[in-house]
Amino acid sequence: MAVTLPSYPSLEDQVVFINGGSSGIGAEMVRAFAGQGAKVGFWGRDRGAAESLIDTLHEVPRRPSFFACGVTDVTALQETLGECSKTLGDIGVLVNSVGNDDRHDIETVDVDYFDWMSNINLRPHVFAIQQVIPGMRRLGGGSIINLGSIAPLRKNEGAIVYTALKAAIHGMTRGMARRLGPDRIRVNTLVPGWTMTDKQRRLWLDEAGEKAMDESLCLPGRVHPEDIAAAALFLASDQSRMMTAQDLIVDGGWT
Questions:
Q1: What is the rounded distance in angstroms from the CA atom of residue 238 to the CA atom of residue 80?
Q2: Does residue 216 lie within any of the structural domains?
Q3: In CATH, what number is assigned to the domain containing residue 239?
Q4: Which end of the chain is more exposed for a tag (fewer CB within 10 A), N or C?
Q5: What is d(CA 195, CA 151) in angstroms, rounded to the nearest whole number?
Q6: CB count, 10 Å around CB of 29?
Q7: β-bridge partners, 192
Q8: Do the beta carbons of residue 103 and residue 205 sit within 8 Å?
Q9: 200 found inside a domain
Q10: What is the pLDDT of residues 71-103, one digit of tens each?
């Protein structure tokens, strides 16, 4: 069943930056915010996928802007955010969607692997937030949405480093919400369940996974990227203006 997205007038003409948006959940975020009439900027590793995404958006009021950037290069990321602000205006909504849920055995993890995972799943979020704070202050407020995970809630043994870094996202959200609240900058964690992206279906979904969801979800069906994007629109809009330091879980009732 397709998700029908509501219209949020407060998002029209809002500058939105998707930190990781060329595929998966991030791509659906780009699609959803563009459909609201927002000025959307995003980066991703795959320029071809990003351009293909933009080419499918025929009926949006304005085409999103893609910025080439490497996620592990903090300087490049902050320069990209600065370029987006110069091109589109001060960023009022930041969606930290970038991540990699690589499976691993904790007994084989080394320092290089740990650093690589941290540089994808935590560091970009911190420094992207740091970069957008001055602009949000000039705007008189803003919304920062960090994508978490239900992994820390489920005792996930197959991706312990990823799970630990996602747990850190939840803590960062709460600290940032307290620090930035006086500036009317809201910070929340959007927590997807197992979301049926192309990557998940290709790499991780198997018969055992299907059985686990059938047994564990309260609702029939599966969580799709559109379900996560719908929640992000709400968190970005004025309809959630008194909501901060919260976890919004969209997992079909798994946790």
A1: 26
A2: no
A3: 3.40.50.720
A4: N
A5: 12
A6: 29
A7: 250
A8: no
A9: no
A10: 889 999 999 999 999 999 999 999 999 999 999
The token pair that represents 172 in the structure block: 């960062």
Residue 231 in tokens: 């929640």
For 38, the token pair is: 């927002």
Provide the 10 A C-beta neighbour count for residue 109. Answer: 13
Q: Which residues are catalytic?
A: 162
Alpha-carbon gap, residue 135 to 146, rounded angstroms: 18
Residue 78 lies in a domain: yes
CA dihedral (83, 144, 135, 117) positive or negative:
negative
The domain containing residue 100 runs over which residues?
Answer: 9-193+224-250
**Which among 181, 95, 179 is positioned nearest to 145, based on CA atoms?**
95
Q: What angle do CA 147, 152, 154 make, to 5 degrees?
A: 120
pTM of the model: 0.95
Query: In which band, very low, low, confident or very high, does the pLDDT at 205 lie, cut at 50, 70 and 90?
Result: confident
